[in-house]
Design a protein that fits this description.
The protein is an alpha+beta fold. It has two domains: 8-80, no CATH class; 82-139, no CATH class. It is 44% helix and 20% strand. The protein has helices at residues 14-20, 22-27, 31-48, 53-65, 67-74, 123-134, and strands at 83-90, 94-105, 108-117. A three-stranded antiparallel β-sheet has the order 1-2-3, covered by helices on one side. Helix 4 packs across helix 5 (67-74).
């Protein structure tokens, strides 16, 4: 599993991770749809921030290294979507279908929080409960084994 604490802060970018991390490709069975939609979101952001050198550098980097990204970027599709459903193939919890909602901070619209929820009583909710039970109490620690 991808551990964000192990990813250097300068590399903690959803779009970059989505294209560069092979585990994320396996995690999302609808990766092509997710990645294409994410590119369309970023295109909308780029239109709103034409002078953002960091965003332009990211786009240039991904375009140079990923044919799919370059093709989807060149499609010029834009999207603004704040909720939906996502299928996930988690390596230990198994398949899950989760609803998601993205919240934007009014004071800083560049910050967003995406919340994933499962339908109450569903197998996906049970899978989330299993994952929560496996998580260390202290996010900086790892679970200890019992002898």
């Amino acid at each position: 599993m991808l551990d964000f604490a192990e990813v250097p802060e300068s590399e903690r970018n959803w779009l970059k991770l989505l294209f560069d991390d092979s585990m994320l490709r396996r995690l999302f069975p609808d990766w092509d749809e997710l990645a294409r939609l994410t590119v369309a979101y970023v295109r909308m952001e780029a239109a709103n921030r034409p002078d953002d050198i960091h965003l332009a550098t990211l786009i240039d980097d991904l375009s140079a290294r990923h044919d799919q990204f370059r093709a989807w970027w060149d499609d010029h599709n834009v999207a603004v979507r704040r909720e939906g459903t996502r299928r996930i193939e988690h390596p230990s919890a198994g398949p899950m279908t989760l609803d998601w909602t993205t919240l934007t901070v009014d004071a800083n619209p560049n910050q967003q929080l995406t919340i994933f929820t499962a339908e109450p009583g569903s197998p996906s909710e049970e899978a989330l409960r299993r994952l929560a039970a496996e998580a260390p109490a202290d996010p900086g620690s790892t679970p200890s084994s019992v002898d």
